[in-house]
Amino acid sequence: MASEQRTAPRDEPVPGTRRTVLPPAWPRLPPGGRRPLLVLLVALLLGQLAVAMVTTAVQQTPTIDEPVYVATATDYLHEHRLRYNPEHPPLAKLLIAAGVAVADPNYDPAYPGTQGAVGRHLLYGSGNDPGRLMLWARLPVIVLTLLTGLVVFAFARDLAGTAGGLVALALYAFSPDVIAHGSLATLDMPVTGFLVTAAWLAWRARRRPRRYVPLAGLALGAAIATKMSALPAVPVLMLLAGLSVWHALPGADRRRRALLSAGGAAVVAVLAVAVVWAVYAAVDPRFRFSPAEPVPALAGLHGRLTALLPLPPAYRAGMRTQFAFEHHAWQGFLFGRVYTGRLWYYLPVALLVKTPLPLLALGAAGAVAALALRPPRPAVPYLLLPPALLLAVAMTGAREFGTRYALFVPVFLAVAAGCVTAVRCRWAVPVAGLLVAWAAVTSLRVFPYYLPYANEAFGGPAATHRLLHDSNVDWGQDLGRLGDRLRERYPGERVWLVYKGSGVPSAYGIRASDPRKVPVSRVHGLLVVSDSAAAKARGRLARLIRTSRPVDEVGYSITLYRR
């Protein structure tokens, strides 16, 4: 019966538009059907994701970037000023501020120094409990990551039905990169969530442009109000919105369709810009900008284009800072090679290492299925164009510090993977189920050490530090675990420490000296080195490591040597 099949949503389309044929929101079910079972499955997948993220958030010490974001969020709460971290817009830090408000930390707004120094002082020099403060700061990002999971499910369900939605959600929920960055008070998972939401809403606008085009503009605005790396998505989402409006007006003449499509694209752009202004106004309605550190000048074409953008002065100043970062020659590490500058293939290779093999296989197969099959084919531009363009732009960047710069790739891959279930073949769903089970086992095996994850083809998390560095493996997250390990196994021993991170070792009971400041002959006992520091070791540190014997490791990110 017709009543047995529900489609989402129910309201009527705009007059003169046509309906996009989407798979039903729920499969054909007998009376009393399986909806409760579906709700239970979604709840279980999101529940395990929540448990994994909260556990990780509790156990990990602050990563390198987190103290800056938490201090900036605290300054927003107390001083309502645009002073720290102008290179990133405020939205995700305002979300972090919601958790900081609950923690209610002591804060000295007059503390001098760089944004990094202010962050360390807030966590370790103001009488606050760093573990409690960081947990509350991370919780809003955890909630946003869970909500993004619902978007992934809904997007894939629109393309391939309920089975496709469950496959996509499961791959998302078991992704080590999603869990790792979803459990941190950083910006990478929030911007990814807003981007995939914008793409999904633009797809939905093919059916009801009046509702979904404005919503897509708001989601896009949230993305560019979180990280400036989302700016290349603006023309893509404008194009997709125009395409959706064009598709929704089959009965109109070509001129009217073209005008309305251009209007839809303009609505997306205007609303995105409006969101950015609103976010800055939420910090300071007068848009005052008093940076704690100098903002570099920007000449040439980039400088002229930045000055013309209809965005707040603080946003444009942040863009100048970002361009200055891109002009710096950073040092990178890939497969044992230390280099200066950029490798165009760094991100694709790093993604191959850190993306679970089942997600790679199902994502690729799903993308092929979307291209080949008629039902999901119209969604291909919405599904593949945004991540492809953003990845191409990210590959030109100078900072090759981790797959977090392309975190949107595994998330869009998870949505694409759901399209495998649209293949009319008896083996499609069972094979997809087996690969999802593989992804689940992989995720459970690395619990709770998600940040240094590498897939089985590259040796697993124990081998990641030999292939990649920085936020791919060692972002300073295991200082607390190191303190526990030293107390349990090496009490009273002399410790020499080379730590890469923002944490303060003494706050975790670690009493250690820097072996790089004394002659090599005086370094005896335990030599403890962050794996990112070891990867790029030169001179005295390289000699110390070469003449020492590894005896232990912590969290796949810190190695202990015996001298």
Biggest sheet character:
4 strands, mixed
Give the overall pLDDT as a whole number.
92
**Helical proportion?**
40-55%
Strand adjacency order, main sheet = 3-4-6-5
Characterize the structure shown.
The chain has 563 residues and is mostly helical. The chain contains 20 helices and six strands. The protein has helices spanning 35-59, 66-79, 91-103, 115-124, 130-173, 176-182, 188-204, 209-224, 233-248, 254-283, 300-308, 313-326, 346-354, 357-372, 380-394, 408-417, 428-446, 479-489, 531-535, 539-546, and strands spanning 331-334, 337-340, 495-498, 526-530, 549-554, 558-562. The protein has a four-stranded mixed beta sheet. Helix 3 packs across helix 5 (130-173) and helix 5 packs antiparallel against helix 6 (176-182). The longest helix is centred in the N-terminal third of the chain and has 44 residues, at 130-173. The chain starts with 34 loop residues before the first helix and ends with a strand. Residues 1-31 have low confidence and may be disordered.
